[in-house]
Amino acid sequence: MGAAPGQAGAGPLQKDSKVAVAKTQAVGAAQRQVTMKGLYFQKSSTNEEITFVFQERENLPVVEDNYVKLQVKACALSQINTKLLAEMKMEKDFFPVGREIAGIVLDVGSKVSFFQPDDEVVGILPLDSEDPGLCEVVRVHEHYLVHKPEKVTWTEAAGTIRDGVRAYTALHYLSHLSPGKSVLIMDGASALGMIAIQLAHHRGAKVISTAGSLEDKQCLERLRPSLARVIDVSNGKAHVAESCLEETGGLGVDIVLDAGVKLELLESSCKHGLEERVCLL
User: Where is the signal peptide (predicted)?
Assistant: First the structure.
């Protein structure tokens, strides 16, 4: 007698279905354990040479307490300060690369109070961070992040946060800049210098700046609000001290902010008593 339709083949079909389901579950589990590549560097024994390497990283652990999981949309590359790492006695086989980041919050810990998923943020990873900014996802404490302004792009946010913090720290916390004060910003056309000029103008200060080339001088002269004076030091003939004394009626400037100028030029200004406070950045 023939078997009823479907009964004879029921066993193999059910077995194949179970195998297919098992394979699908295995693939799903594998997809959840996604590995990401992050960029690290390794110092030589003399700290004079560094080697860059990509390392694979598994999914980050579940965020806890005040930590935030962040999808990186942009990361800025700044010069690696191996001397600072050595002075802080930070001993690692590999150091993460990229600290200034901007991105979208994916998840937050139970004690996070400033952010929630889908927030757009920008921040600076601490020196002891285990995660490199040059990675798809990082885990960072909420205190190292701030909300990104809506009209600022990802690259603009990541590219300006470092110099922005440096300039604000120098003018607000270290030199206590206030309305009516005069400030000399060395190399004002640099990234740090441009931000410092804008912040100083915002606080109502009188701003003088040096320019290292004709192009820099023209750039600074186009700024609005205008600078009190742009001192062209490219030909080596300009006297910074005399120019500042002339601009301030013989009083000199209250603050000198070094944005990467040659040390001997800054020392020359100091010898003439131009400043009350000098900020080296």
Answer: none
Q: What pTM value is reported for the model?
A: 0.73
Q: 152 vs 27, 155, 164, CA distance in Å? A: 39, 8, 14
Tokens of 54: 């990509």
Closest of 130, 141, 124 to residue 40, by C-alpha: 130
CA distance 277 to 175: 6
Residues of the chain with CATH 3.40.50.720: 162-280
- Looking at the domain 162-280, which fold is it? Rossmann fold (3.40.50)
Of 238, 231, 250, nearest to 184 by C-alpha is: 231
Residue with tokens 């003088």: 208
- CATH superfamily of domain region 36-152: Medium-chain alcohol dehydrogenases, catalytic domain (3.90.180.10)
